[in-house]
Write a structure and sequence with these properties.
Blueprint (H helix, E strand, L loop, with lengths): L2 E6 L10 H10 L2 E7 L3 H13 L3 E5 L10 H18 L5 E10 L6 H20 L4 E6 L2 H10 L6 E3 L6 H9 L3 E4 L11 H7 L5 E3 L21 H11 L4 H15 L3
Length: about 260
C-alpha cells in the first residue's frame, strides 16, 4: 500500500530542525510520493531544491493570493521570476503544476487588492498553458469569482482544487470543468459540516488526498504539527464514506495524482 500526499509544504520553517529525519520517516510510512507545493518566490525556490534532492518529492511553482506583493509592478516581477524558475527547471520533470494560485477573500477585504489577485490568477493560468502544466487552486470565500475566471480562462491541462472548501456549488462547477478535488485534514474534523456529502459528490476518478502540512492536522492528531504521514487519516475518512478499504482508496488517489500531474 502506497500513499501520495498531493499537497504539503515541506519547505516550511517548522520542519527546519528535523526535515531530513522526517523525510526518512515519511518513506517508512509508505508515503512514496509527495508534492511540496510552492506559494511564493521563496516557497517555489525551496520546493525546487527539495525536488532535486529527493526522488519522491515533486513541486509546484506559483504566487498564492496571500503572497501577492503590494504593487502591480512587484507582482509582475514576481510572476516573471516564477516563469524563469519553471523555464530553467521543467526539463527535470519535477515541477508538476503552476500553483498554488487563486483567490482568497477571507484575508483580503480591499477591493483593489482583490482585483490584483484576479490579475495574478489569470496571468499564472496563462503561464500554465505556456508550459503545458495543470494548476493547483487555492480558493477561500471567493467561489463565484474563482469559477468565473476558470470559465473565461480555460486551462489546457486542468488542475486541482486543493484543500477544497465544503461548498456544493464549487464542487459541482469544478467537476463540470474537469478539475480534480483534493481533500485535507478538515474532512476528518468532528465539526466539519457537509464533509460526507461533499466527498460523496466527487467521483473516484477525480479525488485526491493531501495534508497541506504543517497546517490542518487531521483527527485524531488535530492541534499538532501536521506532516505527510497523516495523509493516511484522510484516506481512511474518504474510504469510510465511500465504503472502500483504505488500500483501495490509497490506490485510487495515488493513480489519480500520477494522472493529473503527469508523473
Amino acid at each position: 500500500m502506497e500513499f501520495f500526499d498531493s499537497h504539503c509544504h515541506l519547505d516550511d520553517e517548522r520542519f527546519d530542525e528535523d526535515r531530513q529525519k522526517l523525510i526518512e520517516d515519511i518513506k517508512k510510512a509508505n508515503i512514496t510520493k509527495l508534492i511540496s507545493a510552492g506559494y511564493s518566490i521563496e516557497g517555489s525556490k525551496k520546493g525546487i531544491e527539495l525536488s532535486k534532492k529527493y526522488d519522491e518529492i515533486y513541486t509546484t511553482c506559483g504566487i498564492s493570493p496571500n503572497d501577492i506583493p503590494q504593487s502591480e509592478e512587484e507582482l509582475w516581477k514576481d510572476i516573471e521570476t516564477i516563469r524563469d524558475f519553471v523555464k530553467e527547471n521543467i526539463k527535470d520533470n519535477k515541477i508538476v503544476a503552476i500553483g498554488e494560485i487563486g483567490l482568497d477573500y477571507y484575508w483580503e477585504k480591499d477591493l483593489q487588492r482583490r482585483e490584483l489577485q484576479k490579475q495574478a490568477f489569470i496571468k499564472q493560468i496563462e503561464m500554465a498553458n505556456t508550459f503545458h502544466l495543470p494548476i493547483v487552486i487555492h480558493t477561500r470565500e471567493a467561489v463565484m469569482d474563482t469559477i468565473e475566471i476558470l470559465k473565461k480562462n480555460s486551462v489546457d491541462k486542468k488542475g486541482v482544487f486543493h484543500c477544497c472548501p465544503f461548498n456544493r456549488e464549487l464542487v459541482k462547477e469544478a467537476l463540470k470543468l474537469g478539475y480534480y478535488i483534493s481533500f485535507a485534514g478538515p474532512v476528518t474534523f468532528k465539526n466539519a459540516k457537509n464533509a460526507n456529502e461533499i466527498i460523496e459528490m466527487v467521483p473516484n476518478e477525480k479525488i485526491l488526498i493531501e495534508t497541506d502540512s504543517p497546517y490542518l492536522a487531521p483527527e485524531p492528531v488535530r492541534g499538532t504539527r501536521n506532516d505527510p504521514r497523516n495523509v493516511t487519516y484522510i484516506a481512511q475518512k474518504i474510504a469510510d464514506v465511500k465504503n472502500k478499504t483504505i488500500e483501495e482508496m490509497a490506490k485510487i488517489t495515488y493513480l489519480n495524482a500520477l494522472r493529473i500531474f503527469n508523473i
